[in-house]
Amino acid sequence: MKTHEIVIPGPNQPLQIRERELGSPGAGEASIATEATGVSFAEVQMLGGRYPGQPAFPFVPGYDLVGKVLSVGPGVDPALVGKRVATMTQTGAWAENVLRRAEELVVVPDDLDPSEVDTLIVNGITAYKMLHRVARVKAGQTIVVHGAGGGVGTILVQLAKLAGVHVIGTCKPSQREAVERLGARVVDYTRGKVLDDTRALAPEGVDAVFDHVGGDSLRASFAMLRRGGTLVSYGSASTINARGSAWTPILVNMARALLWSLRPGGRTMKVFDVWGRGSFGADSAFRPRRFWREFREDLGRLLALFMAGSLRAQVARRVPLLDASTALEAHVAGGFTGKIVLETTARFGVA
């Protein structure tokens, strides 16, 4: 089977479209026709060679996908053929067809919009795990969500509100109305007074802060916490143009987490990675069975909330897969709410 895929050929080089032959699924694998695949900050980092653990150039990016199973290899239930499925990939999803392990797939109802479902995969899993498996928030508590208008942020706000949690969300002025509709009180981070403005809304401090910015933002985020509060660091967007190893900001954050958590006051900092790297929990490399079990459980919960109308998908823009460069440029430009999604002709039933 021939497939087209998007390739990052080298650091900060224009994306390329490559045609290649995709083999048949091997033992335990499924061949999938991609319908939708997301665009995230991870791909922006990968373009510049700044994503920790990314493959060597050239490679196919793409962190998650929704698609239809075309065929399966030995050891896989044939009933999976024809089913719509979703999975998280880290790389390789920006392609018309892919091969994935069957155990990594979650079956998705046929009547759901593939692009809307895609917004729930890496963004939804990140939000759900941080909220319920890491910070373990409780009803009546107050949290701060940085980047509340983004792909992870919009889901974090909604999940927190569903759990009875009070939310303060930072965002751009253009995102304010959308974030307020989700139920958060808004802090305009472009004013440069995030800590002061947050303290005005929560004078006694907050119970948890979710920070994807990194760098100096972490100090302000930690200062927002009340006694017993938790800062969850899940990215380092502010260091995308830094020099040196892409791992350096992560290692610095881990050192901060250790040192700051030892300070008097009962506040803690945790570094979150959606793959569990560096954690003692569901690590995808060392505890893959637990990791994928939790993935299936958590995505199942998210899909149930979505189908019940309790969780809204935030598709900022739909772009054809082969026009991925435009989508990536739009992501870098910012100003959108939710997630940009790439769609293939399979999304519309076109061969």
UniProtKB/TrEMBL annotation:
<dbReference type="InterPro" id="IPR020843">
    <property type="entry name" value="ER"/>
</dbReference>
<dbReference type="InterPro" id="IPR036291">
    <property type="entry name" value="NAD(P)-bd_dom_sf"/>
</dbReference>
<dbReference type="InterPro" id="IPR051397">
    <property type="entry name" value="Zn-ADH-like_protein"/>
</dbReference>
<dbReference type="GO" id="GO:0016491">
    <property type="term" value="F:oxidoreductase activity"/>
</dbReference>
<feature type="domain" description="Enoyl reductase (ER)">
    <location>
        <begin position="10"/>
        <end position="342"/>
    </location>
</feature>
<dbReference type="InterPro" id="IPR013149">
    <property type="entry name" value="ADH-like_C"/>
</dbReference>
<dbReference type="InterPro" id="IPR013154">
    <property type="entry name" value="ADH-like_N"/>
</dbReference>
<protein>
    <submittedName>
        <fullName>Quinone oxidoreductase</fullName>
    </submittedName>
</protein>
<dbReference type="InterPro" id="IPR011032">
    <property type="entry name" value="GroES-like_sf"/>
</dbReference>
<dbReference type="Pfam" id="PF08240">
    <property type="entry name" value="ADH_N"/>
</dbReference>
<dbReference type="Pfam" id="PF00107">
    <property type="entry name" value="ADH_zinc_N"/>
</dbReference>
